[in-house]
Amino acid sequence: SPAVRIVAPVDGTRVKVGAKVQIRVAASDQDGYVRALSLSANGRFLGYIGITESMKAPYEMTWAPLRAGRYQITVAATDDGGATATSSIRGVAR
Length: 94
Known about the structure:
Elements: E1 2-8, E2 14-15, E3 21-29, E4 34-41, E5 44-50, E6 59-63, E7 69-79, E8 84-93
Parallel strand pairs: 2-8
Antiparallel strand pairs: 1-3, 3-6, 4-5, 4-7, 7-8
């Protein structure tokens, strides 16, 4: 199964509402390859990253919180065998 970790932002990060946040993800798979990442914030789908062999980690996506409050960013990695793993961080937008 894959291994996945949100590299940035770190857990507990405070950001301004509307400010662009660069989400960086490290993902690997010991017995194959990671084929896709799916990102969400507070359960709302942010985007999908299809991974090819020529792409190198960290994989990146930009997000901007739309309102003040707590947020949770989650990434799910899927490997070539269909196995999945997730990683999450929490922070505050103000």
